[in-house]
Amino acid sequence: MSTTDTTGADPAPLDDLKARHRRMWALGDYPRVAREIVSPLGGVLVDALDVTEGERVLDVAAGTGNAALRAAHHGAVVTASDLTPELLEAGRADHPDVDLTWDVADAEALPYADSAFDVVLSAIGVMFAPHHQQAADELVRACRPGGRIGIASWTPAGTIGQLFATMRPYVPAPPPGASPPPLWGNEDHVRELFGDRVRGWRVERRWLPVTHFEDGAGFRDYFAAHYGPTIAAYATHSGDPERTADLDRDLAALGDREGSVGPDGFAMRWEYLLMTGEVV
């Protein structure tokens, strides 16, 4: 097998908001977060869509390609696209022998023809595109009629949704027209985005078991070191020790609330919404 690498070919210049998003996701070590914690979600989504050999699959906001790699192992013809080339490069470097195309692409302006794919999916990726309607429109446009769309997203009430709620007072307000990422974890919001263009939705709330941390402080420290949005929140207050201490306290408290101590130590359950449907 071989890898097609187009990560060096950026199809269009980015506006300031997209450029900031790209820089944020390149901070820290998101490939480590993907590898150590969230990688199972890609397989869950691909399996829920029943991806089969020979199907043309597009993974939107693929990051390091957890879903794309699973689809490729099913024998699909897969393209992994993401706004941040550093994430694609990490995925390609870790899996050089997988037959996969890696494309730098904006989820809100995908560089693919109409109806180019049999399956279009995104595992905790497209939810971070700031303009939800534009992103949803692009998912539908790229998928052929009768093809399948699948999305896995953190819910507003779940651990990662609450992480963003906790960080909100510490970061600048989003620009007009940008929507909070965890809204993609709200079933009604997703249905409204796609309208009557997708039918037969299958909807599940699931939980990702996480046993990576010793306590809430460990949860905070991990995100502060490796997760771009959290690193950016701390950077906003780098010259303000009091505000930094407040953020430290709030994130550790969130981790403690979301976890529990059992016979096997500290454990968390991160809620996500899984939705799959057929394009009309």
From TrEMBL:
The keyword Transferase applies. GO terms for molecular function: methyltransferase activity. Residues 58-149 form the Methyltransferase type domain. GO terms for biological process: methylation. Pfam families: Methyltransf_11. Keywords: Methyltransferase, Transferase. The keyword Transferase applies. This is Class I SAM-dependent methyltransferase. The lineage of its organism: Bacteria, Bacillati, Actinomycetota, Actinomycetes, Propionibacteriales.
